[in-house]
Amino acid sequence: MAQSYKSLKEDFVSNLSGGGMSEVNWVTAVAPAAVLLWSVLQSRHDFFSHYNLLAFVTDFFLNVAAILSAITVYSSSPVILNFLLISPAVCLYLLPRRSRTRQKRPAQAPSANGRAIAHSEQDIRNTLPERPFITHYRGSMMVVTCLAILAVDFRVFPRRFAKVETWGTSLMDMGVGSFVFSAGLVSARPILKAQGADRRSSVGASLKAAFRHSLPLLALGLIRLYSIKGLDYAEHVSEYGVHWNFFFTLALLPPLVASLQILPTWFASVDMIALLVSCIFQAVLDSTSVTAYILTAPRYSLVSQNREGLISIWGYLSIFLAGQAVGLDILPRTGSKLSRSIFGLHMNRPYTVRLFMWSVWYSMLLFLAVSYKALGLQVSRRLANLPYVLWVSAFNCTQLALFSAVEILVFPGLYSPIDKKLEGQRSKHATSQILAAFNRNGLAIFLLANLLTGLVNLATDTLQAGQGRAMATLVAYASILTIVAMIMHWKNIALKM
């Protein structure tokens, strides 16, 4: 009986064909729409400045419950949900701003000729600002990822949102790639800090640090492997393989990225490396029997049993590098010595414009890849092929552009090249505490989400749960994750993995 139920669970998430890209865009647009309403409430009415129970509940409903609704009860009408979020935001934005005491700018120390002030301003300009829109983007991505890994086991979660078997697109396929892209995005920060201090690590030192960073991820992968096998938990073998899981993929990425330092200094454009790796990998898939091996080969050895995870790592490496390239471009202040060029062209435009340019660039490449009949390419998360890399990159750049557009519209003049402390206060004022909490301890919360998902599946028959019971379970699950994330945030606990 137990084996029969396990088979039913595996069949429930297998042999799926996904849905359209546009639907994924509409469903995920709920996140920036919710942040828009949150931002208007904060900028116009200081609603979240005194973070009491009402503020917490409102924050939860906007930035967690709205996303949960988008992937469940509003999955067939995400446009309506977006309208319900954007309409009050527009109305509140048009109302007069609530009067409040303006923060005074700290007085500058007198200077004989102004050179000290100019020097201080230049020092601040060359630092990396805290960008609330990146926190909102990463926090929302983590929220939808954590919600989806349990929601997929209930019938209230549409099958077209679950991971496809081989060819096609879905919400959860995008979630995996977005996790890697966002990791690449923030990996640019230590690189920029080292360059700002004129420090460059050797390949050996970088590899040592990368392996040290990979060890916790490897440990998490082993824990997940033994827990699944030990509990005879339902698993989707064609997703990564018999023994492989997503934590092993994450563990392999840092050493691979560090090893790229062996490339000559003139070949330093990370965006070009990302495209080159993906194109070479696609050429290998098309010109050899690798694709047939992944899709049809018998699982007779350790390598063949885990071929999806081992081979798709090259696609995820490309996604990570694409995210890192975007991070190197948008994390520095515009016009600072750390600012980069895009594909060899020096860009001194606002970061929102640059993000839309990234989005257009990857969208054009994706259109060419899937529309050019001679190539005959389709998106495949299982292979992590070129169209998948381009789709993930285009989507995440668009999401970042939308979050940054909300920030510029509602919180203009957020970044100050004069006073770092004042800038920090403004950034904190413009950041959702719940999304900041999910962003700060994302991997730890993701691990907790996996553990809770396993407990729920062991304790209840998710396939037989009706909509009411499923939603009650998911709301309770989301509440637990949020409360744990907030406690860690308030206690200033940041687990680095």
Textual characterization of the structure:
The protein is an all-alpha fold and 497 residues long. It contains 21 helices and two strands. The two termini are 39 Å apart. About 4% of the residues have low confidence.
The amount of beta strand, in percent, is: under 5%
Q: What's the Cα radius of gyration? A: 23 Å
Strand order of the largest sheet: 1-2
Main sheet attributes: strand count, strand direction, barrel closure: 2 strands, antiparallel
Give the proportion of residues in helices.
55-70%
Low-confidence runs of at least 5 consecutive residues: 101-122
For the terminal residues, how far apart are their CA atoms?
A: 39 Å
Q: Please state the structural category.
A: mainly alpha
Shape assignment: globular
Mean of all residue-level pLDDT scores: 87
Total count of strands: 2
Order of helices and strands: HHHHHHHHHHHHHHHEEHHHHHH
- What is the tally of helical segments? 21
